[in-house]
Design brief:
The complex is a heterodimer of chains A (552) and B (357).
Chain A lengths: L2 H30 L1 H9 L1 H34 L5 H9 L6 H12 L4 H4 L12 H26 L2 H9 L4 H30 L2 H5 L5 H8 L4 H27 L20 H33 L15 H31 L3 H15 L2 H14 L11 H25 L3 H9 L4 H30 L2 H6 L7 H10 L3 H32 L15 H4 L7
Helix pairs in contact in A: 1-12, 1-14, 1-15, 1-16, 2-12, 3-4, 3-7, 3-9, 3-11, 5-7, 5-13, 5-22, 7-9, 8-9, 9-12, 11-12, 13-22, 14-15, 14-17, 14-19, 15-17, 16-17, 17-19, 18-19, 19-22, 21-22
Chain B lengths: L24 E10 L2 E11 L4 E5 L6 H9 L6 E6 L2 E5 L2 E2 L8 E3 L11 H5 L11 H9 L15 H14 L4 E5 L7 H18 L2 E6 L2 H7 L2 E6 L2 E6 L1 H6 L4 H6 L4 E14 L2 E17 L4 E16 L3 E8 L2 E8 L9 E6 L6 E2 L2
Parallel strand pairs in B: 3-9, 3-10, 7-8, 8-9
Antiparallel strand pairs in B: 1-2, 1-4, 4-5, 5-6, 10-11, 12-13, 13-18, 14-15, 14-17, 15-16
Helix pairs in contact in B: 3-4
Amino acid sequence: MNWRAVGATALAVALTVPFALPFAYLLIRNARDLGGLWSALSDDRLVGPLMRSLVLGVSVALAAAVLGTLAAWLVARTDLRARRAWALLLCLPLVIPSFVGAVALIAAFAPGGLVEQVLGIGFLPEVSGFTGAFVVLTLLTYPYVFLLVMARLRTLSPALEESARMLGRRPMQVFTTVVLPQARAAVAAGALLVFLYVISDFGAVQLLRYDTLTRAIYSDRLLDPTTSIALSLVLGVIAVGVVALERRSSRVGLRDQRRVGASLEVPLGAWRVPAYLFLVLLIGLALVAPIAVLAFWAIRGLANGSVDSASVVADPGLIVQPLLSTAGISVVTALVAILIVLPIAYRSVRRPGRLGEALAGTVVGGFALPGLVTALAFVFFTLSTPGPLGALYQTLPLLVLAYVVHHGALALGAAQSAVAGIPARLDDAARIMGRHRIRRFAGVDVPLMLPGLAAGAGLVLLSTAKELPATLLLAPPGFSTLAIEVWQAAELAAYEEAAIFALVLVAISAVLTWFLVVRPALRSWSQTPVTGTSSTGADPPITSGHPEVSAS
Amino acid sequence: MESFPPHVEMCPAVPTRSDPRGSTLTVHGLERQLGGNPVLRGIDLDVPAGTVLALLGPSGCGKTTLLRCIAGLDEPDAGLVVVDDFTVSGPECFVAPEKRRIGMVFQEPALFPNRTVGGNVGYGLPRSERSGPRVERALALVGLTGTAERMPATLSGGQQQRVALARALAAEPSLILLDEPFSALDAPLRADLRGEVRRLLAAAGATAVFVTHDQEEAFLVGDQVALMLDGRIAQVGTPDDLYERPASREVATFVGDANLLPAEADGDVALTPVGRVRLARPAHGRVEVVIRPECIAACVGGDSIVERIEYYGHDAVIVTSSRGCPVRCRVMGRPPFDTGDRIGLEYVGEPSVAFTP
C-alpha cells in the first residue's frame, strides 16, 4: 500500500471538512428540533418570504436574460460602431456590489439627492420594495448573461447564419430560428446564475426593505433563531440545488461546428438609433447613474464638511483604517484559500474519480450556500459549542474561515486548471533526474502554477473585499471594512459618508475586475476560435467558477 | 475608388423565374480590400446559363472572397455583380444575400443542429412546403431518402454534406455557389461526391460556381475553369485549354507538372533540348517552351543521363538532364532504366506554347 497517497487523500479530505460544515450544521440543528422546523415551515413566516425570494429571483433572472442576450447580440452580430468598447462597458456593472447599487438608488431619490436637486423633481417616488430591488438587481446582474452569451456567440460558426441568409431568411428570422436556439443553453446558464445571485442577495433587499428569505433570516436571528435556522436550511437547499442544476447543464458539451473568421454583420438600418439608445440607457442606468449619484453626494459632503468630527466627511483620513482592514483581510483570505484548496485540487485532478469529484463538489457547495447562511451557521455553531471552538466567535480566524468556505470554490477552479496544466512528463523528467518530491514541487510545479493560482487568489480577494453579510455577522467588535462602513452610513441615512466609502470600494473592485475578469474575457474574444476546439477555450473564466456571485 | 452606400435598401429582391435553365452570371471589375490588402484586383467573369465554372487557385488567392461577394456575404469596394440582367451589387445597389435567390454550400455542412434533416432541407422553402414532397425529393436527389426525421448529428460527415447540398438545391435556385464543399472529407469520399455533384448540377440545370484548390477536382467538375492567382483571373477556359495552352508561365506551372525548356523559336516551330516542337501560337527568337512530362518519350541510348527515378506505381517520372538543362519525363508503369543509364528523349505531344523569358 502506498502510504504517501493515503496521506495525500487524508489531507484533502480533512481540508474539505470545513466546506461541508455550515450545511451539515444546519441539517443537524434542524433535525434535532424537528418540531421547530415543522412549525416554521408550515406557517407564513416561511411562505411569504419564500414566495418573495422566488418571485424576485425569477423576474430578475428573466429581465437580465432578455437584456443580456439582446446586448450580446447587438455587440456580437450587428454593424454598430465601436463594438469592443461597448462590450467592455457592458461588463463593468459587475464592479458594483448590490448593496452599493441599492445605496445609490436610495440616495438618488432621497431628499436633497440628485433627482431632487439637479433634475428639480419635487415629488419623490417610493423606491423601496419590489420595484427598487428588481431594478437594482437586474441592472447589476445582466452582465452574467451578457458574458456567457457573448462567449457562446463567439464560438458559433458564422456559416450557420450565412447558410440561413442564403436560404432567404431575413436577419431577424435568422436570429430567432438559428442564433437563439444555439445560444439557449448559455442564456439558461446565465439566468440560473442571476437567480442564485438574487436569492442569495442580502444587502440590496435589506436596504430596500423587500422581505425575502435572506431578510427574514437576518431579522429573526436574535429573537427567533429556530425560524432563522429553518429558513436558512430552505434557502440553502434551493441554492445548492440551483448550482447542481447549473453544473449539470454546463457539463453537457456544446457541439461546435468549426469555421474561423468573422461572422456576418447584421445591418440595423432604421433600428440603429433605437439600438444605440438601448445600450446608452442600459450602461447609463447600470453604471453611470450609480457612480454619478455617489460622486454627487461625496463631493457635496467633502465640500460642505460636517459638524461630526468622527465622520469621514470631516476627516478624509478616516478612510485609511477600513481600507487597510479590507485589503488585509482580503489578502489573508486569498492566501489561506489557495493553501487550503491546493491539496484538494491535486487530489481531484491527479487521481480523478468519485472521491475527487465529491471533494470538489463539497467545495462548490460551500460556495453555493448564500454568504449570509454560511455566516449564520458559523455564528450559531460557535455560540452553541463550549470550549476553544466557542471562543472563536467574533474573532478574525473565524471570519477568514467563513470567507474561505464561501469563496473557496473560486480558488479551487483556478487551482484545478493550474494543476491540470502541469505536463505529467515534466514531473517524470524531474524524478528521473533524482529530484526529491518537495524540490520537484517547489522547482517545477509551483512556478508553472503561479499565474493560475494568482488568478484564483485574485478572484477570492475581489469577492472578499465586496463581502457584506459574513463580515456583518462575524467581524470582531471594532473591526470595520469598507463594505461595513457603507452599510452603517446608509442605515443612518448618512449618504455623504456612504458615498465616499462606496466609491473607494467600487474603484478597488473595478481595478481587480479589470485584470481578473474583463481582460481575460476580452482576450479570449479577440482570439479566433481554434479549429475543432470545444467551447471551453473561448469561455470567459466566469463559467469555471462564477466569480463574484456573492451574497452582498 | 467609389465609395458604396452601406446596404442600399431600395434594391428590390431578385425576381423568381419560371425559366428552368440556370441564370447567367457576370462579374465586372470587382475589387475588394480586406484589412488594407487588396484581395480582389479587378475580376471579370462570364458564366453562361446552365454551366459549371470551377474557380481554381491556391489558398489565399481570393477565390472565397470572390464567391462571398457574388453571394452578398461580402460587399465589394468596386465593380458589378450581375445575375441575368439584374445588378445585385454595384455602385448604387447592394441586394442583401437573402434576397438574391442564390444557393450556397460551405466547406462545413453548417446544418442547424436543433433541426431535423428534413427541417434543415425545408428551411429555405415557403412555409407550406417545409415538410412534404419537395423535401423528400431533394433528399432523394442526394441519395438520402428516409432520413428526414433524423438529427444531423447522427449522420456521417459525407452524409451531412449531402444534406447541405440537398438544402441548397431544394429551393431550386438558378445559381449555386459551392465553397470547397469537400475539403473536410476523406479522399475516397471526395472522389465519390465529385462525380455526384457533377450529375446533380446537370440534373438541376442550374448555373454553378465551384471553388476548389484541387486541380483534379476543378477539371472533373467544371465545364470551364477559371484559374485565380493573387487576386486576378489568370486564365479562363476549358480544362484542356488551361492544360495544353496555358496563357502564362504561372498558369503552366500551377496546373499540372511542366518542364519549361529553353528553345529557339522560328514561327510555328521551336528547337528544344528534346527536339523540334510545334507551337500553337507562332513565336520568334529565344523562348521557353512548356512541355508536359508525359509528352516526352524516352528510349534506350542517347545523350541524356538518368539522374533519378521517382516511382509512383501506376507511373514514374524520370529525372534527367538534356544538354545541361533538367527534364522530367513521365512514363507508364516502371521504366526499363536505372540511374546512370543513357537515354534518348523525343517530344510526342500536341503543339505547345512558348513564352519569352
